[in-house]
Design a protein that fits this description.
By secondary structure, this protein is an alpha+beta fold. The chain is built from three helices and six strands. It catalyses: 7-aminomethyl-7-carbaguanine + 2 NADP(+) = 7-cyano-7-carbaguanine + 2 NADPH + 3 H(+).
Amino acid sequence: MVRDSLTHLGSGESSYRYDSPSRDIMDVFSSPRPGRDFVIALECMEFTSLCPITGQPDYGEIDVVYVPDQLCIESKSLKLYLGAYRNHGAFHEDCVNSILDDIVAVCAPVFIRVIGDFNARGGIAIKPVAVNWGEDIDENRRGDVMEIVRSYDRFSRSKR
């Protein structure tokens, strides 16, 4: 287990940054089942960033669904990372793609999908989706992984 690298969980203190999201904030730990494909879903119900043009706050939800390879994201560090967008100016589409890129950089998942469900501004709700596949994933495994993700999607929709 990559327990030595967990700097936020159990530390007794949290360092909050509100304007500089950086992948260095995220901690990872070893997958409890390397070699088995399974879904981890992380839902951030209170995501906030700033419009880069007007400086007005944008509110929304960020949903991260991923299939880990060797490493998993520690949830408290993800919370701190997402909180760092609070005073950061970026368009919704950039936020979602940056989140995906940073998670891929720290844990290299087999598959990841990041969805931003932002509150409407000016009568238009923006819902960007970004997807990434790990390297060297053959078509058979892609099909198996997508079936697991679809199963999760069906389950999560039934809970709403």
